[in-house]
């Protein structure tokens, strides 16, 4: 009789470990999937940026610093080797693109250029998609992190060395108003 009870207890514990492990793997994979979704939208943004910069160059030749900052921020992201570096580089690029659009306000003929307007609209749509993808990523990362930290699933997470996911956070510079001087 005692062996049956012990067998049932071991079975229940093993079943819990299996279900919890599979849940953690599923959450980790969703976090990675959401990161990939962000990456897809960032790639789209990166493909648009050179066209946008070239369009602006023709109108704002003496604003080379702003244009160089956009290109440099784009390149920084492309060379990022960790998610944290990529998140920081993405923030820099967002700031640089915001300044580029603010710069365009000083050039009425640029604002009226159909190519620029089209690129600006596409980039705006892409920025919205990136924003939504970041939200989904953070929600998924929250689910994984909660599962890793909460009892009793934290025991299984520690046993199998699951790591918490980083959140996308606004950088300090993004919390400030953009200052553009002409």
The helix/strand class is: mainly alpha
- Mean of all residue-level pLDDT scores: 85
Total number of helical segments?
A: 6
Low-confidence stretches: none
Strand content: under 5%
Instruction: Please write the string of helix (H) and strand (E) elements.
Output: HHHHHH
Tally of DSSP β-strands: 0
Helix percent band: over 70%
* Cα separation of the termini: 86 Å
Please summarize the sheet with the most strands: none
Radius of gyration: 23 Å
Specify the overall morphology. rod-shaped
Can you characterise this structure?
- The chain has 182 residues and is mostly helical.
- Helix content is 78%, strand content 0%.
- It has 6 helices and no strands.
- The longest helix is centred in the N-terminal third of the chain and has 58 residues.
SSE layout and pairing:
Layout (H helix, E strand, L loop, with lengths): L1 H58 L4 H15 L4 H22 L3 H4 L2 H36 L3 H7 L23
Helix pairs in contact: 1-2, 1-3, 1-5, 2-3
Please provide a brief summary of the model.
The chain has helices spanning 2-59, 64-78, 83-104, 108-111, 114-149, 153-159. With 182 residues, the chain is mainly α.
What key attributes describe this structure?
mainly alpha; 78% helix; 182 residues
């Amino acid at each position: 009789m005692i062996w049956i009870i012990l067998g049932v207890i071991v079975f229940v514990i093993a079943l819990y470990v299996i279900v919890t492990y599979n849940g953690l793997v599923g959450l980790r994979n969703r976090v990675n999937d959401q990161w990939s979704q962000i990456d897809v939208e960032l790639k789209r943004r990166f493909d648009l940026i050179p066209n946008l910069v070239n369009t602006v160059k023709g109108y704002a030749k003496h604003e080379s610093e702003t244009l160089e900052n956009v290109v440099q921020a784009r390149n920084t992201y492309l060379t990022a080797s960790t998610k944290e570096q990529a998140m920081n580089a993405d923030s820099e690029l967002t700031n640089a693109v915001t300044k580029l659009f603010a710069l365009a306000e000083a050039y009425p003929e640029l604002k009226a250029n159909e190519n620029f307007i089209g690129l600006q609209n596409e980039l705006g749509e892409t920025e919205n998609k990136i924003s939504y993808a970041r939200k989904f990523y953070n929600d998924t990362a929250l689910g994984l992190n909660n599962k890793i930290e909460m009892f009793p699933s934290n025991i299984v997470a520690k046993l199998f060395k699951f790591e918490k996911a980083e959140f996308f956070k606004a950088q300090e510079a993004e919390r400030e108003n953009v200052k553009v001087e002409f």
